[in-house]
Amino acid sequence: MRVSRLMLVTLREHPADADIISHQLLVRGGFIKRVTSGIYAYMPLMWRVLQKITHIIQEELNAKGCLETLLPQLHPAELWKQTGRWQGYTKGEGIMFNLKDRQGRELGLGPTHEEVITRIAGESIKSYKQLPVNIYQIQTKFRDEIRPRFGLMRSREFIMKDAYSFHSSEADLQSTYIEMNDAYEQIFTRCGIDTVKVDADSGAIGGAASQEFMVTADAGEDLILISSDGKYSANQEKADSIAKEGKELKEGSPEIIETKGQNTIELLCRDKFFEPDQVVKVILILAILEDGSKQPILASIRGDQELNEVKLLNCISKQVKQNVISIKPISKEDLKDVPFGSIGPDLEDSFLNEVSKWSQKFIRLTDRTAADLKLFICGSNKPDFHRIFFNWSMIGGPHQIVDIRKAQPGDLCIHDQEQTLIEKRGIEVGHIFQLGKKYSLALGASFTNEHGSQEPFWMGCYGIGVSRLAQAAVEQSHDESGIIWPINISPFQVIIVIANVEEETQRILGEKIYKDLQDKGLEVLIDDRKERAGVKFKDADLIGIPWRIVVGRDSSSGKVELIKRSNRSTTLLSCESATKMLLAEIFN
RNA sequence: CGGGGCGUGGCGCAGCUUGGUAGCGCGGGUGCUUUGGGAGCACUAGGUCGCAGGUUCGAAUCCUGUCGCCCCGACCA
Question: What Å value separates CA A332 and C1' B56?
Fold first, then answer.
């Protein structure tokens, strides 16, 4: 391809809306153009990158026996109503774009395809003899993100590979899960990016085991925690750890003290010389359930710890045996009489009488860190009074003991208490799930097993954010001059820069190398523009082609420069040797 | 949705406080010079100042409304 024909427009400055380096470089290099908030056009160079990634994915998945398909983007509402996800995905802050057609039928743009594929599988697969199958597609997905940002990192329209597997047994699902894990590691390695695999919460999608593949980068939106020996790594939403032990409260006789104005743990500790880890913090939360009912939660946790809302939500779901749509803190506006700032774990249910629409009984949960305190300080349920030197038996016990705390960097690891957790930021590029039977049950997708009876499928699902991966690669591989594409996903493998196209010798030699390399099967870009050499060098750096051949002042003696983009190492050699050396480097 | 900010040639911005008919840098075009790291000079094209009302002799500038976009948070397979 000739740069003169490439519609290449590079920018010296980046647009004001690009905040992270990968976004800036992709815009400056003319790879993407924003059309509206969270929606981008992939320009020709970018499309080549995306196709490279696509091909790697296809090769690896096909090698595992996966089947490529293309599923519809518009989904009928009733399909999503069957799994109970229509409400949650379209109402309130739902991410599913939805509309009505001219007959008034409700439709949604697919943010994911469990419903569609499960119905199709249910209709197509009759017998265990047809199992297992693993179906995937690579296509545009739509999610009406509340706040799109960082270019392709969190966009509303994006390219995703999603695969769904169907099995006759859990063991078979697990073996495919491992196979997919291997395929993913291969894919990311071939794409030239470093990923960390972390345990993840399976979230709204439901299911058992779930792991995410993260590209570590400071611009990452997810916080991940990794043990110092590397044996444990998890998304913060999921991470379990052992909190550091607090300073035990010295013996003292139980009493109730006045604590006027000390309505936060920080203030209480400062004025009374306690430590936050000697206090039981009580948090009131309202859970809104799938059936519309509202369940108040009273959560107790050690004062220096933070609540993990994902763990809490999962914990509540389990209790009430249905999905929790959302949780929010309960405030003074909700319950006027509750002594916020002085609440104890034994706050009476009668305080709920104020709001008749809510369930009239708290679900009381106590985090392990609070339950383990032998003596503690806590609210007295009277405004401006706290109890000190109390123990659990004095206030009716710790209720249910659960893990609802946020793991923090510096915490001890559960697999080895000699190890501590360190924190990194990550960009999620892949996610694998064991879904179980959630969707097959909801949609009545079943097969006939060996014994002749109907059984719902065991399912797995596996995603890769293709467009996000491309940007993550840039986030991980660039320097002050521009992008450095990993060779396997670079839009071209080599760029020939003719320093001065007015010089016939240079032009002829450049064109000869161009043809030779193409004949050898390389993907070659030739910068034949009537620009000054400096401009072409800057552009070549910016767009990040891994190899560059400069045909310039030494061309009269048949010599060219071969330059590696990543470290700028330069070799002056004959054009034949340059070709040979380049082929060796690329095909080694 | 809450908080903050911004809409002025393709891009980055100034002008707005104190109303007087729009400017700078980059980019585009033409010509001459230059030619290995985003060249110099000259000429040139390109703007309903987001949109709609209002105030005024006069609005990019003041007022009201509205739309769009960005940042922080909440949110997010």
Answer: 50
Distance A18 CA to B15 C1' (A): 25
Closest to A427 (Cα-Cα) out of A460, A491, A473 = A473
Residue A207: the pLDDT is: 61
- Classify residue A242 by its DSSP letter: B
CATH fold of A255-402 reads YbaK protein (3.90.960)
CA–CA separation, A371 and A364 (whole Å): 12
Residue spans in chain A of domains classed CATH 3.40.50.800: 492-587
Cα A389 from chain centroid (whole Å): 44
Q: What is the Cα A479 distance to its own chain's centre?
A: 25
For the stretch A137-169, pLDDT in tens is 999 999 998 888 899 999 999 999 999 999 999
Could you tell me where in chain A the CATH 3.90.960.10 domains are found?
255-402
Q: Token pair 């797995």 is at which residue?
A: A460
Q: Which nucleotide is nearest to A328 (CA to C1')?
A: B74
Rounded to an integer, what distance in angstroms lies between the CA atom of residue A513 and that of residue A404?
63
Interatomic CA–C1' length for residue A525 and nucleotide B44, angstroms: 34
Chain B bases near protein CB atoms (7 A cut-off) = 1, 11-13, 25-27, 34-39, 68-77
Alpha-helical regions (H) of A340-417:
368-371
> Where in chain A are all domains bearing CATH 3.30.930.10?
46-73+110-222+425-474
At residue A203, does pLDDT exceed 70?
no
Q: Is the ipTM of this complex over 0.95?
A: no
Query: What architecture is domain A492-587?
Result: 3-Layer(aba) Sandwich (3.40)
The predicted-structure confidence for A72-113, as pLDDT tens digits, reads as follows 999 999 999 998 888 778 876 678 998 889 899 999 999 999
Cα gap A114→A110, rounded to integer Å: 10
- Of A378, A362, A370, which Cα lies nearest the Cα of A405? A370
> Which residue is nearest nucleotide B25, judged by alpha carbon to C1' distance?
A13
pLDDT over 80 at A326, yes or no: no
Say how far A35 CA is from B4 C1', in Å: 25
pLDDT per residue as tens digits for the range A6-42: 999 999 988 888 889 999 999 999 999 988 889 999 9
Question: Architecture of A46-73+110-222+425-474 per CATH?
Answer: 2-Layer Sandwich (3.30)
How is residue A306 annotated by DSSP? -
A561 nearest nucleotide via C1' and CA: B36
Helix (H) or strand (E) holding A557: none
Q: How far apart are CA A134 and CA A162, in angstroms?
A: 10
Task: Report d(CA A397, CA A562) in Å as an integer.
Answer: 74
User: Which of A27, A35, A39 has the alpha carbon at shortest distance from A142?
Assistant: A39
